Amino acid sequence: MILVVGSASDTVASALVRQLRETGHPFQVLDEDHPERYSVQPDRVAGRPGYRVLGGGCDGASPVGSIFLRHAVAGRLDPGRVASLGKLHEQLNRMLAVARCPTVNLPANAGSNYSKPFQVGLMAEAGFDVPRSLVTNIPENARRFYDELGGRVIFKGISNVATFAQVLTPDKLDRLDRLPDCPTLFQEYVAGVDYRVHVVGDEAFVTRLRSRGEDYRRDARAGDPDLIIEPASMDERTVARCIEITRRLGLVVSGIDFKESPEGRLVALEVNPYPQFTFYEGRSGQPITRAVVSYLTRHPTDSSNVFA
Amino acid sequence: MFLILAESGDPLATQVENLFETQGRPARRLSEKELMEETPLAIERDGGRFGGLLRLPGGDLPLDQLSGVLVRMRRRWWPSSGFEPADQMFVYHETTAAVFCLLAGLRCPVMNRFDLGWWLCDPAYPERLREELADRLGWSLIEADPECEPVRVYAVDGRLIPASGQAVSFEDRAAALAEWQRRSGLRICRLDVSSGAEPALEAIDPCPSLVGESADLIGRVAAAAVEGLA
């Protein structure tokens, strides 16, 4: 059986559940929109720590072969709901720390994009071409970086708190005086076409995105009709590198962002451990959800220590 | 220059600072607030190259001039109440992500080079550590028994410094422990081990406070830490 953990209102989890229904493979959903319904109980299984998930439709009796997980966020600042969801996440994450079945993806391995410049370092070590980066809260260092790169600089948040990349244009230079309040990530601006590579185990799906702005996500949100999202290809070495870094980070699924300059320089920007792949497959037609389901269904349940 | 990131009441940090002073090695101590709020920084990455500086009172400290860093932060820093609550949260994460990037990227010894589970106070992090180490040492895991005092052992780069009177013999696992410490970045930690016939792991403290430990024990842990940093 497959355990799907997340919010019923999450488009990725919903698409996965639809696909699972079509395959007829047994699955159970733990809907984090109702955290009060569930409890995750430690138990001993064959002398080792194990867990049973109870509540909702889960009776804690069926062995789980694999887990698909996208933790929900408390949509509103209701203290009761935040506490209840936090408690469930804590119980689930303790379970995942000892679970012997594969999890797509383990939260413990999904942290690298908490610090984008840290992740850029990991990508450089893995052999990707990465943009020159500066993290600073010193205005004169940011100005020097801007000058060294001939004014071709973007800025964005350092952590995984959602921010949009913006080009540092001359009219924004005055805002650098506010840097002492909070460090910021500055990066060499690579203009060109965006690529997203979704890795699912040993498979990869390359998608090209052509937009007018510097961050296609903003154009997509604004409903830009000129945003083009289509299947594409990449050289085999880069694709192999995408699969390898995903594996090395301990992830099964990832969404890796690239920019390709008009001169053909392919620059890796970010590895997303919880990619919104339904957005891309909905426009490119690439069967990413099917690949995730195929990965989840191929794991036996005999040695599992998680029951739901 | 050595950097000690610790509050003033931290006995291990104080002892390490004293040892550096005795040895004539320059060291600078910064509290969490001083590092997160009052020390301007610049961290540069260009391909595999990592560099930058910390702007300390008295002058800039280039990161490549750091000889070692002792990290004893209590993770209690929160941005000033001068920010709106939503901005406080944003500044907290941006600053923490910057400091994590700084410490993860340094080429010099960093004790401990904590992973994100520690920085983000993930409640499952200690459990994960326990599972990993028990697996590596071939030990079983045991839940703490409030009736039975565990044997507390400080481990510094695989060197075992028992805190309790009772000793647990696991010298034969010292190499495996040292390798786990190197890979996990937890070069100083405390293991709580059951005192039964077969050793079993009760808990790991990845950043033990050492408050209340004897001066002799603190001195031995500090000496091992200084050796590791130097």
Biggest pleated sheet of chain A = 5 strands, antiparallel
Report the count of strand segments of chain A.
17
The separation of the N and C termini of chain B measures 10 Å
Provide a count of the helices of chain A. 8
Q: Largest interface, by Cβ-Cβ below 8 angstroms: which chains and how many residues each?
A: A-B, 41 and 40 residues
Number of helices of chain B: 7
CATH class of the largest domain in chain B equals Alpha Beta
Query: What structural class do you assign from the helix and strand content of chain B?
Result: alpha/beta
Helical content class of chain B: 25-40%
Instruction: Provide the succession of SSEs of chain B.
Output: EHEHEEEEHEHHEEEHEEH
**CATH architecture name of the largest domain in chain A:** 3-Layer(aba) Sandwich
CATH topology of the largest domain in chain B: Rossmann fold
This entry's quaternary arrangement is: heterodimer
- The best one-word shape of chain B is globular
Task: Give the helices and strands, then pairings.
The complex is a heterodimer of chains A (308) and B (230).
Chain A: E1 2-6, H1 11-23, E2 27-31, E3 39-45, E4 48-55, E5 58-59, E6 66-69, H2 79-98, E7 103-104, H3 116-125, E8 133-136, H4 139-148, E9 153-156, E10 166-167, E11 184-188, E12 193-200, E13 203-210, H5 216-221, E14 228-231, H6 236-248, E15 253-260, E16 266-272, H7 277-284, H8 288-297, E17 306-307
Parallel strand pairs in A: 1-2, 1-6, 4-17, 6-7
Antiparallel strand pairs in A: 3-4, 4-5, 8-11, 9-10, 9-11, 12-13, 12-15, 13-14, 15-16
Helix pairs in contact in A: 1-8
Chain B: E1 2-5, H1 11-22, E2 27-30, H2 32-38, E3 41-46, E4 49-56, E5 59-62, E6 68-71, H3 85-105, E7 110-111, H4 116-119, H5 125-137, E8 140-141, E9 151-156, E10 159-162, H6 174-184, E11 188-193, E12 200-205, H7 215-229
Parallel strand pairs in B: 1-2, 1-6, 6-7, 8-12
Antiparallel strand pairs in B: 3-4, 4-5, 9-10, 9-11, 11-12
Helix pairs in contact in B: 1-7, 5-6
